[in-house]
Amino acid sequence: MAPATVIVCVECGGRAQLATPLTPDDVIAVGDVLMYRCDECWGRFDVVVHEDDFDDPPGESPELA
User: What is the mean pLDDT of residues 14-24?
Assistant: First the structure.
C-alpha cells in the first residue's frame, strides 16, 4: 500500500505533503506513523495508519482530487 502523498491540512486547509522518507521496498502497516508538513502554515501532522487507509487508491487524498 502506498500512502497518500498529499492530504488536507487540518489547520489551514492547505496541502500537507508526506515528509516521511519512504522507499519502494518499505512496507506500510496498520499502526505506522507517517509525518506530513503543510506547504502553507508549516504545520506538522503525525498520522497513524489505520486499517481503513488500505481501501483507498494510492496518491492524493480524495478531498484534494
Answer: 90
- Give me the number of domains the chain comprises: 1
- Let me know: does 65 contact 8? Beta carbons within 8 Å: no
3-state secondary structure of 6: strand
Residue with cell 502523498: 5
Dump strand ranges (E) for 11-51. 15-18, 33-38, 44-48
Question: Is residue 38 in some structural domain?
Answer: yes
**Rounded Cα distance, 6 and 23, in Å:** 17
**Is the predicted pLDDT of residue 63 greater than 60, yes or no?**
no
Q: Which domain holds residue 40?
A: 6-56
